[in-house]
Amino acid sequence: MLALLRPCCRAFLFAAVLCSFAAAQTIEDAPPSPTTCHGVQLGAHDLRSDADQQLSSLLATGLSDLLIEERDGRHCVLQGPFAYEVEAIAWQHQLRDTISDVSVVSMPVGEGQTFSDALPAVYGTTGQTAASAALASMRGISAYTALEALDGGNAAVYRTALKNALPSHPTSDPMHGYIVANLGILDLKAGRDHYTSALSQLRPVADGTIAASASVRVMAMVRSAWLIHQTGDRLQAFRAWRETEQFSNSETVKARCRVEWVALMMELAECDKGTHADMRHAAQVAYAAYPNQLKRRAVLELMFAETFSRQPAARHALSAQLCGAFVEKYTPLNVNGALDREIYSAMYQAGLFHERAGNISQALDWYEHVLSVVPSDFEGFAGAHPHAEALGGLSRQAARDGNTELQRAILRDIVKQYPNSQLARKILNGYSHLVQETGSEE
Fold first, then answer.
1. Which fold, 36-108?
2. What is the H or E stretch that residue 282 is in?
């Protein structure tokens, strides 16, 4: 099928990407110094005394990082400043039900400016860390050892053992938190239909309502943050991942949390809550913060490359160049396939972004490279199969060439071979007539 499109010219593939990359911005560059910061305006008063009174009242409720600034001739009570707009938006959404006049404002960055990194708590850990917990780990507790031996085996047997053990441990016993959290994880693993039940069990452990060791609480916080994201509440999930990173004392957990909330910054930017530039800055800071976390750094760098194509003033060619350089950089570091998902995703994204930039020859080289290098059954991020995506690129070229017969054949192959992929669902929604016509002709 592919031979009908064009011959593959892989000698050009990496050279074209690298020759213009030297001038491109990279995640390894020093993050640019911000010129604008953000605050939450909680009130505006003609009299300074009224502003002072509101500030005192707000401080009494537990809010911090408050100041009074004159803006447009009025005395404004502000919270902040925050480096990222989405941080101010998170506070705006938290406070708008209790404060009538709350809005996000921008201001120039002052000399020596420091920023607040406080966000509304999701789990109530403000001022606490895992290191300060009375019980760090469950290890050595006999009841824990007996149950832990069943974890990873038969799920039904493990669930039954957890339920049978629960009545023996009151909510003040950390074993209760361990049992409830693991019942929640079993529900999470059971699939999307069980996510509500999973979160209802994990949240009390994450919140500290049910006693748990520090390690179990962090485990519950991580799973709860993930589940909150699945419900579509991105702002709360962003806050949850930030809080978990601050609470945990594990570098691995911290790095995972940082990647998750940086990724959410990109999603939120596309819902007009923050900017792609902020997300890239946060990705650069995170990349530098965890030098020993190769896989997490790779994910950050891949998102960094992608964001240029997703921003309002899209720079598709730059994203394509960065993805190509990503493949060159990480392929030699890919030990035992640990970075397969990231490298293969970068390959088909390089093709996609070249296609969007109008560089069709380079795009087709990348798509053909994916089909020759990536295992056909490999699944990438969130149901995005590199093979399916590369075939999709070739189907679009067939359409541009006016070769409807080949386009139909490729689309039908995608639906048949990758029925659960994102692309197959798009085809069935938007091109089902082509697929059906192909089927009827057989």
1. Alpha-Beta Plaits (3.30.70)
2. helix 276-289
Residue 56 makes CB contacts below 8 A (sequence gap 6+) with: none
H, E, C per residue of 315-371:
CHHHHHHHHHHHHHHHHHHCHHHCCHHHHHHHHHHHHHHHHHCCCHHHHHHHHHHHH
Secondary structure (H, E, C), 13-29: HHHHHHHCHHHCCCCCC
End-to-end CA distance of the chain: 17
| C-beta of residue 385 within 8 angstroms of C-beta of residue 426 | no
- SS3 (DSSP) at 67: strand
Please give the C-alpha separations between residue 332 and each of 299, 337, 340, 348, in angstroms, as whole numbers: 16, 11, 11, 18
**Cβ atoms of residues 422 and 345 within 8 Å:** no
pTM (two decimals): 0.89
Let me know: does 193 contact 213? Beta carbons within 8 Å: no
**Residue 134: CB partners within 8 Å, gap ≥ 6?**
none
The pLDDT of residue 422:
80
CA dihedral over 202, 151, 212, 168, signed as positive or negative: positive
- Cα separation, 339 vs 293, whole angstroms: 12
Task: Convert the pLDDT of each residue in 388-431 to its tens digit.
Answer: 899 999 999 999 999 999 999 999 988 888 887 888 888 777 65
- CA–CA gap between residue 246 and residue 129 (Å, rounded): 7
Q: Report how far residue 344's alpha carbon sits from residue 422's, in angstroms, rounded to the nearest whole number.
A: 16
Second CATH level (architecture) for the domain 120-249? Alpha Horseshoe (1.25)
The CA distances from residue 57 to 52, 53, 74, 75, 94, in Å, are 9, 6, 19, 16, 17
Structure tokens at 17: 């990407």
Domain boundaries along the sequence of the chain: 36-108, 120-249
Per DSSP, helices labelled H in 83-154 are 85-95, 142-148
Q: Given this chain, do its domains 36-108 and 120-249 carry the same CATH topology?
A: no
